[in-house]
Structure formats: C-alpha cells, structure tokens
Task: inverse folding
C-alpha cells in the first residue's frame, strides 16, 4: 500500500493547478494545465499527472480539497471546497509564518490577504470589476501588441525608459498603449509600463505589511514583476519556489488538517479507484 | 465522494407574509383607484419625505423608490436603465431613478404583472421630495414634473450632522409648513391639525413596532434575516402613518416573538451573525439569502431596514417632530455618527462581521468610501468586507466575485472564532 497523500485542486479561470502533499506538507507532485472549458476533465488529467509525479495513485488519496473558480466542478474527486483566499492564507500560514501580506496576481483577479502573527486571516481584498492589475490585462495587451505572452518578461527587463500608463481601465490603457506606439516609443518600454501598471493597481488596493510574499500565475511567468514590486516597496519580496501552486497547496493543507493526518488511508473512506474510475 | 455536500438548510418562512401581501396589494389598488377614478388626489413622495402631511391632506401616496425596488427585485431594472441612459441620465446616477424613468418610457411596471387591473404607476397630481437622502430624488421628480406637467415641490435638507440641533430642525420644520398652502390648493382640503397629529401618532406607532420587529433578531438564533426585513418593511415604507401598517406589525411581531421563545432561528444552525450596511441588491435577494443560509450565516441586522425607525415623531409637536425624524435618519448623518451607530449595532446584535455594500449608483448609501470600515474594524476588532455591487443595475455586479468574497469572509470569521 502506498503512503497516504493529500490533494489540493485549484481550478482557476485560466489555469488548473493540482498539488499532491504528504502528511508533513511536503510537495510530492504537481501539475498545471490550461483550464479550458471542461474543468472536470482538465482537473482529472492534472490529478493523474500530479499523482504520477508523486509516485502515488488515486487509492492513496486520504483527502482532497478543491478551490478556485471551478471548485464546484470536481465532484469526481471531492465536493469539499474552500475559497482561493482561504487556501492562499492557509498555505502562507505554514510556509511563511508571522505577520505578512500575500499578494496573488492571477489570471482573472488579484487578491491581497493579510495574516496576523498567529497566521489568522486579518483581512482580504479582491480586485473590483476591472481586469486592470490581473493576468487578463497582460494577455489582452500582448494580443494588442502582437507579442507572445512569454516574451513579455524579457522585453520588460530590456527596457531602459519605462512608459508610464496612468489609467485604471483596460480599455483606456489600450488607447494609451496605441498612443505610445504612434509616438514611436519602444515596445520594451511599453511592456515595462504594463508590468508597472499591473503591480501598481494591486498595491493600491491595501497597505502591505513589512513582510510581503507574492504568488500567482502572473508572477510565476513574469519574474520581473517581483523585481519591480521590490523596487516600489523598497524592500525584498518573498519569492516562493512555486508561486502558481500556493492556492493548490493551501487546499491540500486544508485536506491534511481536516482529515487529521495519518499515514495510512482510512479504510472507512471510499476507495477512489473503486468509486470513481 | 470524500465529503458530503453542504447540507441543504431551510430558511424559516414567516407566516405573516401572506397578510403582508394583502396589505401591500390593498395599498397598490387603493392608490391605483385614486389615480384612475380621481376620487382622491395622488402625491408621489420620497421615502422619507413628508408623507404624514400628505396623508393628513387626504392624498393617496405613491413612493417611486418602492417602485424602483420592485423593478430591481423583479429583475426588470437592468433592461430599463439604458432607456434613461439614452436620454441623458448617466449610468452612474441612482439606478432607482434610471430604472423608474426607463420603465415609464417603455410603459411597463411590475405592478401590472403582480396586480391584475393595474396598468401603470398612478398618475400624480403633485411630486413631493426631501433631499435629506440625496439630490437624485429632486432630479428624478424634476423629470416627471416636466414630462407630466405637475408641480414638484419639496424640502431642501441640510445634511451630515453629528447631532441634529435646533437650527436645522427649525429650518426643515418651516420648509414643511411652507408646503402646506400649495398642497392644500392641490388637494382642495384645508389641513386639519388633528388629522395630522393622528397621522404622526400612527407613524410613531408603526416605527415602534418595526423597531421591536427588528430587535427580535438580537436573539440567538435570530428569528428573521435581513432579507426577510427588506420584504417585510414594505408596509413601513408605503403605509407609514396608517392603521393598516400598525395592525400588520402587531401580527408580525407576535409571530417573531413566539419564534424567539421557541428558539426557532430563521437560519437553521446559525453560526455566524452578520451586519449589512448599504442597499440590498434587489435582483439578487434570493441568491444572497440562500447563499448565507448554506453557509449557516445570518445577516441579523442592517442599516437599511433600521432606517425606517423614526423615534422623534411626536403628535404633540407634529411639524417639528417630523422635521427631526427626517433629519435624524442615518443617511443624513456624518461619518462620526455612523461609526458610533454601527458600533452600537455590533454590540446589540452580537455581530461577528460587517458587510458594506458599495453600490455603484448610490454613493449616499455606500458608507465604505471614506475609511469608515477600517476605522470601525480597528476600534471593535470586528472584521469587515466591502462588496462592490449595485441596488438595481446588475451590470455592475460579478456574482462569482460576490460569492467568493462572502465565502472567504465567513471562512475567515469561522477560522478566527
Ligand atoms: S438614496 Fe440612493 S438609492 Fe435612494 S434615491 Fe438617492 S441615490 Fe437613489
């Protein structure tokens, strides 16, 4: 019998992330894939890939918790869900204890979660109605600039003179970008301006504490945003090893805590292979 | 499956609801009859305008804000608002106003759907406002005044008080009295001071009973929710100053008091008690109510429902006390006052968390914009959440964000307990 594992599934609007942890919260396996339109199928593929990496199978799952936009769409594995905010806080509490501000920049929204000295959530905020400050904003702009998304980090780093974009609004920002192109500004300077505007919109949401950690897909793929945030905050920002997995890992930590971690699967629990496959 | 799905919880139904439907239906038919037969003159009045005076002068009273709320609750508003936008009324201003004017322009009303025989909102003989709540009402009535060629008169109210002193009371009292000659001329009735006193006394009685109704929710578990409150406040809104409202609240109060004695909570297994500040999202009442129910959270108190408690009414001094009542309203007060009021509510109702609804088109009822939540949070330690939304314009709402925000907030409260 393989060791028990705990699974967190973060079904984001843009990417699905699955993390497999052991009872000591060590990351054994993970998978990340575009969520697409069939959340359940994508989650199932990610789950198997993450389990394979963890050298486990579905029968070894002691508990699983889902989170994210599609958290209710993974009934095949769990109907126990938590919010992304709860999961991020939960991950942070164990990974980086103490008073801290977590800034998550995701595909469709961003969040600021503050934890107190005991790791309890003090407050949280999500962005409001606009895409400004989210991955969706960068995606929209990369399309307009006809640039592959993965080239943006490198371009921003190459910039010598950033273009300042002032607007709150994605549509207005697009107009500003066009105006700058017309005025002959370098694409790299515009991209740096876009990065700056993303991080600025997020930092405007709340006052960060001394210690700050950043997570989410946008920082995972655009590490330069860490550098820019550090410059703006005037202090180092904690860079997790897997920024995009924080939510999924937090969900898995819920799975551990709520199950009461034990090393062997509880025989009274359903056997997933029997029930689900 | 690893975990059972969330148990389906039931919200306790309030039996008096049927009686309330009858009381409200009688009201709408009565005003409709007045307008269609000409038996009685019709006045339109803002929610905390001088309704007592209008009733004492024999007017049948229609409340456009109530109509705005009905447009919201029936989810007609979002399709009608653009009609008003198109004639120059911005999507950023009061969505009661834009929905109501849009409904007029399209010739539709939820009253016609709910009450067979009613074809339109009652045609007014006069429009009477008070700007105690906002400027939008004056502009709203101004549009109808031009469209229907009826006078729009009212009270220009001072605002933002810590304490409501003698000077503004004097000012508003004079303004109310100044309306009398014109209203007498329109109604064809001389003001009978005894009738005014009687109306003020009934408003006072209604207010007392409504207060007691809301205070039943101090009990744990609370026998009613904010969502019940938004429905059952109907008579307090449209029938203030009448015997019908008073009689209704006696019945409702008795039922709720019995539920308190029986420990019959409105939310089965109530584990979190919340306060709602700001307007309801009318088009999402049911969804919100069910969502809180699923989470075993009860919104037990609110600024909105409590705004129809007017303790100043005093039949011995009708004009002055009306002025005082209209000025003491929460929406008319300063943030300092609001902060201390909310503090008291947190204590009285044993609140675990406050939700502020920041309604895009009603800055007047959105109290999260000048730092109040943070100040109150640090003074009380009670966490808060600001929800972006709107009272009527569903284009301003992300259901998914609202849901996640509410769930995360309740998770936070439960984990912190
Ligand atoms: S207070 Fe707000 S909702 Fe009420 S009429 Fe004024 S703007 Fe509209």
Result:
């Amino acid at each position: 019998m393989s060791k028990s594992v705990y699974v967190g599934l973060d079904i984001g609007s843009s990417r699905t992330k699955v993390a497999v942890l052991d009872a000591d919260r060590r990351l054994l396996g993970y998978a990340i894939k575009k969520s697409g339109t069939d959340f359940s199928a994508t989650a199932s593929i990610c789950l198997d890939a993450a389990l394979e990496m963890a050298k486990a199978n579905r029968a070894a799952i002691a508990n699983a918790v889902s989170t994210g936009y599609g958290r209710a769409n993974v009934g095949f594995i769990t109907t126990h869900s938590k919010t992304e905010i709860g999961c991020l806080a939960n991950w942070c509490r164990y990974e980086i204890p103490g008073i801290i501000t977590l800034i998550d920049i995701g595909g469709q929204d961003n969040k600021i979660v503050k934890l107190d000295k005991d790791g309890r959530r003090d407050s949280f905020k999500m962005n409001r109605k606009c895409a400004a400050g989210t991955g969706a904003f960068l995606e929209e702009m990369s399309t307009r600039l006809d640039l592959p998304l993965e080239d943006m980090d490198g371009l921003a780093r190459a910039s010598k003179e950033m273009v300042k974009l002032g607007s709150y609004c994605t549509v207005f920002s697009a107009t500003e970008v066009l105006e700058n192109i017309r005025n002959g500004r370098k694409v790299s300077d515009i991209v740096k301006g876009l990065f700056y505007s993303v991080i600025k919109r997020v930092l405007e949401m709340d006052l960060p504490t001394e210690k700050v950690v950043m997570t989410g897909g946008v920082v995972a793929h655009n590490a330069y945003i860490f550098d820019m945030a550090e410059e703006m905050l005037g202090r180092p920002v904690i860079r997790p090893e897997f920024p995009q997995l924080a939510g999924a890992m937090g969900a898995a930590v819920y799975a551990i805590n709520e199950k009461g971690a034990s090393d062997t699967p509880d025989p009274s629990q359903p056997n997933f292979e029997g029930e689900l496959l | 499956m690893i975990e059972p799905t969330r148990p389906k919880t039931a919200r306790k139904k309030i039996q008096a609801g049927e009686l309330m439907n009858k009381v409200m239906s009688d009201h709408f038919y009565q005003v409709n009859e007045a307008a269609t037969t000409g038996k009685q003159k019709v006045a339109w009045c803002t929610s905390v305008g001088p309704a007592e005076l209008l009733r004492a002068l024999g007017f049948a009273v229609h409340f456009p804000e109530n109509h705005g709320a009905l447009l919201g609750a029936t989810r007609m508003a979002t399709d009608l608002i653009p009609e008003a936008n198109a004639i120059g009324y911005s999507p950023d201003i009061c969505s009661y106003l834009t929905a109501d004017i849009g409904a007029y322009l399209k010739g539709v009303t939820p009253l016609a759907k709910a009450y067979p025989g009613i074809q339109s909102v009652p045609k007014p003989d006069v429009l009477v406002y008070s700007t105690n709540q906002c400027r939008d009402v004056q502009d709203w009535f101004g549009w109808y005044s031009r469209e229907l060629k009826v006078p729009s008169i009212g009270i220009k109210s001072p605002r933002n008080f810590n304490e409501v002193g003698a000077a503004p009371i004097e000012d508003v009292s004079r303004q109310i009295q100044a309306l009398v000659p014109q209203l007498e001329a329109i109604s064809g009735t001389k003001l009978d001071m005894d009738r005014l006193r009687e109306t003020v006394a009934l408003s006072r009685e209604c207010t007392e009973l409504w207060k007691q109704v809301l205070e039943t929710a101090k009990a744990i578990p609370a026998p009613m929710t904010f969502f019940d409150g938004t429905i059952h406040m109907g008579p307090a809104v449209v029938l203030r100053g009448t015997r019908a409202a008073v009689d209704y609240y006696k019945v409702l109060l008795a039922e709720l008091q019995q539920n308190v004695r029986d420990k019959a909570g409105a939310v089965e297994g109530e584990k979190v008690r919340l306060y709602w500040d700001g307007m309801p999202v009318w088009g999402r009442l049911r969804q919100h109510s069910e969502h809180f129910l699923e989470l075993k959270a009860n919104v037990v108190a609110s600024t909105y429902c409590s705004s129809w408690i007017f303790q100043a009414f005093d039949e011995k001094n009708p004009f002055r006390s009306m002025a005082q009542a209209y000025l003491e309203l929460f929406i008319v007060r300063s943030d300092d006052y609001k902060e201390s009021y909310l503090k008291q509510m947190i204590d009285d109702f044993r609140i675990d968390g406050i939700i502020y609804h920041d309604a895009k088109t009603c800055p007047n009822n959105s109290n999260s914009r000048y730092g109040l939540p943070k100040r109150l949070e640090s003074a009380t330690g009670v966490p808060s959440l600001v929800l972006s939304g709107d009272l009527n314009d569903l284009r301003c709402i992300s259901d998914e964000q609202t849901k996640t925000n509410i769930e995360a907030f309740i998770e936070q409260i439960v984990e912190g307990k």
User: Anything to note?
Assistant: The mean pLDDT of chain B is 96. The pocket of iron/sulfur cluster is lined by residues B 65, 94, 96, 133-134, 136-137, 362, 364-365, 391 (CB under 6 Å). Chain B touches chain A at residues 1-5, 377, 383-384, 386, 388, 396, 398, 400-401, 404-405, 407-409, 411-412, 415-416 (CB under 8 Å).
